[in-house]
Hints:
The structure is a homodimer. The first copy, chain A, is α/β, with parallel strands linked by helices. The first copy, chain A, has seven helices and eight strands. Chain A has helices at 20-32, 48-58, 70-76, 91-104, 118-123, 137-148, 177-180, and strands spanning 7-11, 37-41, 63-67, 80-90, 107-111, 126-129, 164-165, 174-175. In chain A, the strands form two sheets. Chain A has a six-stranded parallel β-sheet with strand order 3-2-1-5-4-6, with helices on both faces. In chain A, strands 7-8 form a two-stranded antiparallel ribbon. In chain A, a hairpin with an 8-residue loop joins strand 7 (164-165) and strand 8 (174-175). The longest helix of chain A is centred in the middle third of the chain and has 14 residues, at 91-104. Chain A is globular. The mean pLDDT of chain A is 93. Chains A and B meet through helix 1, strand 4, helix 4, helix 5 and helix 6 of A and helix 1, strand 4, helix 4, helix 5 and helix 6 of B.
Amino acid sequence: MQGDNHVTVLRLGHRPGRDERMTTHVGLTARALGADRVVMAGSASSRTDTVVDITDRFGGPFEVETTDEPKRLIRDFEGTVVHLTMYGEQIQDVEADIRAAHAEGPLLVVVGAEKVPFEVYERADYNVGVTSQPHSEVASLAVFLDRLYEGRELDREWEDPDRVVVPMETGKKVVDPNDREE
Amino acid sequence: MQGDNHVTVLRLGHRPGRDERMTTHVGLTARALGADRVVMAGSASSRTDTVVDITDRFGGPFEVETTDEPKRLIRDFEGTVVHLTMYGEQIQDVEADIRAAHAEGPLLVVVGAEKVPFEVYERADYNVGVTSQPHSEVASLAVFLDRLYEGRELDREWEDPDRVVVPMETGKKVVDPNDREE
């Protein structure tokens, strides 16, 4: 997010035919909730289109990349590596430490899908569970980012949007941002 | 959640062949993050099995139901109705009011998928956006519940689990709860 150290979300490869939509939602959630970049690995690489399209229409900055070498990206990352897993330490116990690390440098947030290689657990500076219950990598990512930024991501400004949603009690209002500025 | 007024999550029908996994994740997220019940409507009704199975294995209480009449459920609900939508008021602006309403009575949280009928917007006491950006109903539900309970859901106790994950810095540890109590 602008004014903060960079946050990259790495989506590991998903099971083809099963998790395509989840991967798209990981990318969209990363963008909406303050991350700067999503990298989709292996089979997840096919899901970049929607995220690029939403960024074009609703604004950035937000980068969308793919990789065939996610393990190398994790191993060589210069910064703090967080791996979201239900087996990890509880978020309420480690979030303050992670915020402190993020104040010092960039963060890589690894989001799994199919079985995650043990090397990822070992390389991660923090294995973090949003509860120790099985639920959703999208839900975990969302709660993690909201707590990382302590809600500041909700006020994020978007550059160069073609359209802007105006919050309303009832109904839908979408405007051209040039009109809104008048 | 035990000790709080009931929270029901209603998942509206999804697009067949596209959002099955999202519906499962809505159900699992509702359970993990403190809701008491999920109701899956129409085409979403086929996705109850995984949520029931996880509740059997990891504990409850958590109810899983289906309905063919989601509009009636919303219309007749005796309590406060919240509809999560990117077009709604911003969560940071209304969450305190919703917490106050929840202190007084039960809450119904409506999560859409395909186009949501306008009646839902009209009946809802609060149309709430977790950002005004397109992302994920699972992410919105997760942030909403975490803020509703102000993090208390992370310490939720589970009754009658067959297995319990023990949080760890590295690796995976799953125990039989009877062993853990020794």
